[in-house]
Specification:
The structure holds two protein chains of two kinds. Chain A is α+β, with helices and mostly antiparallel strands. Chain A has five helices and eleven strands, in the order H-H-H-E-E-E-H-E-E-E-H-E-E-E-E-E. Chain B has a two-stranded antiparallel ribbon with strand order 1-2. Classes of the chains: A alpha+beta, B mainly alpha. Chains A and B meet through strand 4 of A and helix 7, helix 8 and helix 9 of B.
């Protein structure tokens, strides 16, 4: 969903209008921008490590292919150390991480999820998922947004929030970066972040804006909010302006004034109700 | 495989003590599910009756009753003599016979109660999904509804069906309802397609399309009703089949 620089929500949310009373307060947009920039940078740190893991997986795949033998599951076991490092470095934010490979990539497994999750004590355990297509519980990860977006765009992406019913079983974001071998997409490296953790990071700042404020995903899904009538998980009104919301900050340049530009990494928008 | 194999983690899970009032049917059902899930294998010897009764927390009489039911179903064979004991017999014709055995061990009342629980969860999930689903969620639901039409085996149908309901709960943005759907489907999912004849498959698949349509129309009340009616129809088919089976 998040090819950087082209946030899907941006078009729908429309441009702020100069006459909006909320925009008379330039400090508000500045604070909103700072808040959104802060969370973007924090998530960007995790995504940077995910991208590193993807690059390491690409090196392994390239080296193995150059040497001749087909790729096997064990070839990727050195990644485990990097995944554990990610989970340690971002304990409390990253709940799980690993790689998944496209069907047919490995010689010894039709599908592959090498995913680890961290418990409260930061102990790392491997996730076990039923990948046998004949089994009734079979989990087809190739239909998920976090797999499809990097496959489609060739770019890192931040999917969610969504109900992750396989790994975290919670309301989750998945950061994912494509893995390529010889120009071909062979899977993604990724990390899961619980929506509750993101909320903890941004809610104090939202509340500090002093009016009803909402952080929404590029799809128009509420991530965090100071309004009980528009809680996390709710769909943002199709026309936020008609519902009284003014976009304050988001990725991408956005004339006219009164809009704060956050880093392009996340297609998230911060909105507020002027009369809060 | 000897009885020592049962002294493992899976055995501890399998033979966890039953709730107070655990009856022979419950013991028999646990064992049948274990056979269906492949936790107990063909030819495997069960622990001695006294030990098994202790593990289930039931009296030896209750356990013997349960074993008698399983013998009647052809799932357990008891041999006498020094190498004797109770042995698992997993039927050669797997799916249908085993699933039917599971159904036979559920009372009509229990089936109705499971149906009520499923209708409540599916109804609430559909209603919230109609309020909260975005275009991408609808596309996902339609994709899995399409897979149900394309499914060619009972396993494929069961998988596609379960996935649709889990995805509806996920579209409701509710981890709890999603986990509830998953747990219900792992518990009784095998039963759902048992009473569906080949010429009814298209209609049941179309029922799912209509449910997804109500969610796509963002009509919470219609969606809730469609989900409830859908589960009630399924429960009705199961009750009919169960009543035709008679008692064990």
């Amino acid at each position: 969903m998040t090819s950087p620089g082209q946030p899907p929500g941006a078009a729908r949310l429309g441009h702020p209008v100069l006459a909006d009373p909320v925009l008379a307060d330039p400090l508000l947009a500045a604070r909103a921008t700072s808040l959104l920039t802060g969370i973007t940078q924090r998530i960007g740190q995790v995504l940077a490590r995910v991208t590193d893991i993807g690059a390491a997986a690409e090196s392994i795949a390239a080296a193995t292919q150059a040497a001749g033998p087909p790729l096997r599951r064990d070839d990727f076991s050195p990644l485990r150390r990097r995944v554990a490092e990610l989970l340690r470095a971002h304990a409390g934010l990253a709940a799980g991480a690993g790689i998944v490979l496209a069907p047919g990539t490995l010689a010894d497994a039709p599908r592959c999820i090498e995913w680890w999750w961290a418990d409260q004590q930061a102990q790392v355990s491997q996730l076990h998922v039923d990948l046998d297509p004949e089994s009734a519980e079979f989990y087809d990860y190739t239909t998920t947004e976090w797999y499809r977006e990097p496959e489609r765009t060739g770019q890192p992406s931040v999917a969610g929030p969504y109900v992750d019913f396989i790994c975290t079983r919670q309301y989750t974001f998945t950061l994912a970066a494509p893995i390529r071998c010889a120009g071909r997409f062979i899977g993604v490296a990724g990390a899961d972040i619980l929506a509750a953790q993101v909320e903890r990071l941004v809610l104090p700042g939202l509340a500090g804006l002093g009016r009803t404020a909402v952080l929404a995903s590029g799809h128009g899904r509420v991530i965090a909010s100071t309004s009980a009538t528009l809680p996390p998980g709710a769909a943002l009104p199709r026309r936020p302006r008609a519902a009284g919301f003014v976009p304050l900050a988001g990725p991408g340049p956005r004339p006219p004034a009164g809009w704060g530009q956050a880093p392009d990494l996340l297609p998230w928008t911060l909105l507020a109700v002027p009369a809060g | 495989m000897g009885s020592s194999a049962l002294a493992t983690v899976r055995a501890r899970t399998l033979f966890a003590p039953l709730d107070a009032g655990g009856r022979a049917e419950t013991v028999a059902r646990r064992l049948t599910q274990a056979i269906t899930l492949g936790l107990l294998l063909d030819g495997e010897r069960l622990p001695p009756e006294s030990q098994l009764a202790g593990q289930f927390g039931v009296s030896p009489v209750t356990l013997r009753e349960a074993l008698a039911m399983l013998r009647d179903l052809g799932l357990v064979e008891t041999r006498r003599g020094r190498a004797g004991g109770s042995f698992i017999r997993a039927p050669d014709d797997p799916q249908a016979a085993q699933v039917e055995a599971v159904l036979r061990l559920l009372s009509v009342h229990e089936l109705r109660d499971i149906g009520d629980h499923r209708a409540a969860v599916a109804g609430a999930a559909a209603k919230l999904a109609a309020q909260r689903a975005l275009d991408g969620d609808i596309a996902t639901l339609r994709e899995h509804a399409g897979r149900l039409h394309a499914a060619r085996s009972v396993t494929e149908r069961r998988r596609a069906d379960a996935r649709i309901h889990v995805e509806i709960a996920a579209a409701a943005q509710s981890p709890r309802l999603t986990r509830e759907e998953m747990s219900l489907w792992s518990e009784v999912g095998d039963l759902v397609w048992l009473p569906v004849a080949d010429d009814q498959v298209a209609e049941v698949a179309a029922e799912h399309d209509r449910l997804v349509d109500t969610i796509a129309r963002q009509d919470p009340e219609q969606a809730r009703q469609a989900a409830e009616r859908h589960v009630q129809a399924e429960t009705g088919r199961l009750l009919d089949l169960r009543l035709r089976m008679g008692t064990v």
